[in-house]
Amino acid sequence: MNKSELPKTGLALLMLMLRTSDKEHVIGSFEVEYLEIYSKKGRLSSKIWFWEQILLSLLPLLKVQLSWGIVMFGNYIKTALRNIKTQKTYSMINITGLAAGMACCILILVWVFYEFSYDRFHKNQDRIYRLVSDYQSGSRLLGMSYTPLPLGETLKNNYPDVLESSRCMFFRMNRLESGQSVYYNTTFGYVDPSFFNIFTFPLLKGDPAKALKDKYSVVITEKIAQKLFADEDPAGKNVLLFEDKIPFTVSAVIENPPKNSHIQFDILMNTEISNDRRKKYNLKPWVTNTVNYILVKEDFNKKELENKITTVIKSHNVSKYKKIYLQPLTDIHLRSGLNGDTPNFDKGDINGVILFLSVSIIVLFIACINFMCLSTASYIKRSKEVGIRKVCGASRKDLIKQFLGESLIFTFIALFFALILVNIFLPVLKQLSGKELDFNLVSHGYFALAVLIITIGTGFLAGSYPALFLSSFRPEVILKSRFLSGKKSRLNLRNSLVAVQFIFAILLITVTSVIYFQIDYIDNKDLGYDKEDIITVYPPYKDVNRDAFREELLKNPNIKNVSSGFLPIRGNYGHEARKINWEGKDPESKPEIHWFPAYYDYLETFGIKLAGGRFFSREYPADKNNYVINESAVKIMGMENPVGRRFSLNGKEGRIIGIIKDFHISSLRVGLEPFVFQFNDGYWFIIKAGRLNQPETIKYIEKVWGKFLPDRPFEYRFLEDDINKMYRQEFKTGTILRYFTFLTLFVFFLGLIGLVSFSTEQKTKEIGIRKVLGANITGIAALIIKEFTLLFIIAFILSCPAGFYFMREWLSNFVYKIDLSWWIFAASGIITMVLCLLTVSFQTIKAARKNPVDSLKCE
Amino acid sequence: MKHLTSLEENILLSVYYLKDNAYLISIRNHLKEKAGIDLAIGSVFAPLDRLHRKGLLDTVSDKPSPKVGGRTIKYYLLTDKGIEALRERQKVISKMWVDFDTLNSKA
Asked: How far apart are CA A711 and CA A21, in angstroms?
C-alpha cells in the first residue's frame, strides 16, 4: 500500500471497516477527493470533509462487513459439515474422544463445585469463623475444634469486631420420645440463641429471636416434625428428651439443614441444657470446652483479633491451649483435619479435590491433544481446498476464522454429546461418592460459565495450530509445518504431544495400581487380632450383668465367645492413662500410655496372643484390680520382668499379671502404641459369631437382648465394617479414580487409533511400494511400531520419577504401607505398552494387507 | 424479480451510462450531477457491493490509475442479470407512469 496523505486515525478506522479486497480502491476514492479539496480549499476543509465522509460511511460499511460475514459464515458451516461427512471415521473418533474427555471433566467439576459449595449458603458466610486450637495432649500437640466454653462470649463482650458468638455442640445417638414413638439416633444440637443470627437456617414456623429463649424449648427440623406429628401443627407440643425423659416444648420448626452443610442436626436446644448436664463433672468454665463460632465485622483485623484471643487465654490460665486460630467457615469442610469435628461430619479433603481436579485437566488435555493432532491430519487432506480459497482471495484472517470456526463447531457438537454422557453417568458418580451431586446449569451460573469456557477454550486451543500454520501464505511455513504430521524430525511437536499423553497414561495406571494395592494390603494385613465375624453392640445407659448375658448367648452353638470393652479401633487420642506408677519407676519419667478397658475373655474372643503371664481370669477375683500391658508399653516403660510388678493407675493399686502381644489399635495410619488394660465391665458388647448362618445368629442375639433390655432397640454392627469405614475416604477415592482412569485411557487410545490410522494412510503409497519390492507384513508393521516405541520408552522413563514422588507422598500417610517397588512401575509401563502395541499393530496390519495395486493407483 | 431500491436503480443506471468508466468515484459524481443525490463514499459503496453480491454487477480490477490517485481501480460492469433488472424496471415505469403528462395538466 502506498503511503497515504489521509489523516492517520481516520485511515486506520477505514482500514478496520473494509474488507481486504475493497481496501485499495475505496481508500483511493477517499484520497482523490481529499487531495482535491486540500489543494482548493486547504487543510482544514479537507479534514472536515474527510471526517464527515467517514461518519456517514460508518454504518453502510459495517453493513457490508456484516452481510459478507453472514455469507462466509454460511459457507464455513457448509464446508465444515461437508468435511465431517466426507471424513466420517476421523470425525467420529475426534468427536467421541472430545466428548468423553469433556464429559469426564464436567463430571469431576460437578463434584469439585459441590465440595467447594459447603456452607456457602449462609448469608454471612464470609464473616463466620470457628475458633480452633492447638491443644497439648500429653506430649502431642493436637489440632482441635474445641475451645474453652466462655471464649466466644468473652470475645463478643470485649471486642467490637466480634458481632455475635455461639457455642455449638452436636451429638448423635440420643433419645427422643413423642407420644407413642421413640427414636434413639436423633442428633441433638446445643446452640446459643444467637445461632440464628450467625447462620442462615431459616425457620418455617416460629420466631428466631424467641425460639430458644426458654431453656426447655426445642426447635425441630421439618423431617422430625413430619416423623413425630405428620401434618399436625407441632408448635407448643411436648417431646421427651434424653434417657431421663425430660419434657421440652416445641417452639419452632426449622428447615432441614442442606446436605452441603457441615452442621447437621435433627433438633436444636439451648446450650444451657448441655451445661447443666455437665455440671456433675464439676469442671471450671474455662476448662470445659465447646465449639465456638463467631460472626465478625466486615473489615475486621484478623491478626489483631488472634492476638487478643491469646491475651484472653493467658489471662485465664488455660495453658493446655497453646494457640487459638480463626478458621473460616468455608475452610471447615475441606481443610479441617481436626480432632473432635462434629459427628455426621462428612469430612472432605482438599487433597482429594486437587487430585481429581488434576485428573480432569489431564483428561481434557489429552482429549485436546488428540483433537489437535487428528484435525491437523485431516486438514492436510484439504490442502487443495485451502489453496483454492487463497487463490480466490481469502485472506489469512479469513482462513483462520474458518479453521477456528470449524474447530468450535466440533467442540460444540462434542459438548452436546458430553452433556448427554454426563446426565447418564451422574447417578453413578452420585452413588460412588455418596454426595448429592446436582448438574443444573441453569441454577449454577458459575458452573455454566466454566463449562462454556472449557468448550470454547478447547475449540480455540485445538484449532489454533492448524488455523495458524495452514493459513499461512508463505509456502515454506506450510511445508515445514509438516512437523506436526511429518515424521522427519524425531523431536517434532506431534511426537512430543504423543509422548506427553503416554506419560499421563502411565502415571494414571501407576497411581491407580498403587492405591489399589495399598487398599488391598490394608484389607489383608494381619492386625494382630481376628477381625472377622465380630458383632458389636453399643451399650445403653442402663447396664446389664455381662456374665449372665454371656451365658445366655453361649447357649447358641453359633456364638463362639462374648466379651466387653473398647473396640480395637477406638482410636488413641484422649484416653491417656493418668498417674501411672509402678515398682521401680524412675520418678522423672512420664511415659505416655493409653488406657484400654477390657473384660474377661477379651483375648480369646479376638484371638490375641499373650507374650507372657495371663489375662484377667474369673479364677482370680483380685484380677479386678490388676493390669495387663502390651509389649510396646513394656518397652516404653523400660521394665524388666514386668509380670508380677506392682502397678497403679490413677491411684488404684494392683499388679501386672500379663503381657499382650502388640496388636493394631486404630488405623494403619499410625504405628503400634503402648496400652495398659484395666479390668472393666462396661463399654461395647463384643460377640464372636460363627462363619455360617449369621442372620440366624443375629436374630438370636436380638432375642436375648430383648430379654435383658426390652425397651432398647437392638442395633449391632460388624467390626469389619467399622474398620473399613476408617479407610472409607481412600476406598472411595480409589474406586472413583479407577473409573476415571479407564475413561482417560479410553480417550487416549482413541486418539492413538486415530493418529496411527492417519499415519498409515499417509504411508499408503510407501507401504504399497515396499510390498511390491518384497517386504512382508511383519516388516511393514515393524516400521510403524518402531516409531512409537522410542517415544514410549522416553515417556516411560520420564514418568517414573513423577509417579514415584507422588505415590511416596500419599503413602506417607500410612505407617503401614506397601513397598513402592520397581515392579509396579514396570508393570504399568508394560501394560500400557502392550495395549499401545495392540492398537498400533491392528491398524498397521490392516494397512499392510492392502493390495499394492489399490495403494499405488494414481489419483 | 427482487425489488430494487431507488438508490440501487440509480446506481445501475449510472453504471449503464458510464459504460467502461464506471468506478466508485465516477458513479458517485454521476449521481450528484444527474440526480442531485449527494452521498458519502461509503453510502455509495454499500449498495454497489450489495448489487455485486446479488449478481447484478460484476467487478474488474485494473492496474493502478491516476483516476484514483495511483491506486488499483475497480470497475463495475452490468451483468446480464443487471441488464434484465433494468429492463424490468423500465417496463414497470412505463406502465406506472403512462399518461402522466395528461394527469399533470389536469391538476
From this structure: 93
